Amino acid sequence: MAKYFDVHPDNPQPRTVSQVADSIRGGALIAYPTDSCYALGCKLGSRDGIERIRTIRRLDDRHHFTLVCQDFAQLGQFVRVDNDVFRAIKASTPGSYTFILPATREVPRMLQHPKKKTVGVRIPDHVVTQALLAELGEPLLSSTLLLPDEDEPMTQGWEIKDRLDHVLDAVVDSGECGTEPTTVIDFSDGEAEIVRRGAGDTSRFE
């Protein structure tokens, strides 16, 4: 049965945020809000968390997981970014974008695309997510909470708890967030390729 954390959207309660972070450190799989839509998240490098996300979403091994980072300095520890790509990403963050880039050695092999050795990264523009990342001190391993055979993610924390109570350890609810996943930009070859059009404006990458 998933724990339910009710977090204020503008002034997240430090004690509650700390409890959520402790749950993640202890191996919990959580559902949490972002600036695009709800996501599934677990501790970086949690093999159990990865397998549970794959099961919930029915993902194959070619799926790009995302490292949700607090800031650009943290992001730079996990992906290789040249100068041109740096400027493009810097101008778009924080925001509703996921960038696919070559992974550094800091990224566990099981998170990397099996052939390309890439990983997704993003910096969200969401008060609660940022508070959680600051408390956690490391990225959240994440994937959009989009269930198989459904066109849109769920938007209500109580609905997520009701439907996924048996497969999650915690649900963070700070009110309704969006229904559009992030826009995904693949920079793995140095040029911007729009993989998915979502909540972020694509005009600067076209």
From TrEMBL:
The keyword Chloroplast does not apply. Transmembrane segments: none annotated. This is L-threonylcarbamoyladenylate synthase. The lineage of its organism: Bacteria, Bacillati, Actinomycetota, Actinomycetes, Kitasatosporales. Keywords: Nucleotidyltransferase, Transferase. Residues 14-200 form the YrdC-like domain. GO terms for molecular function: L-threonylcarbamoyladenylate synthase. Its EC number is 2.7.7.87. InterPro entries: DHBP_synth_RibB-like_a/b_dom (IPR017945), Sua5-like_dom (IPR006070), SUA5_domain (IPR052532).
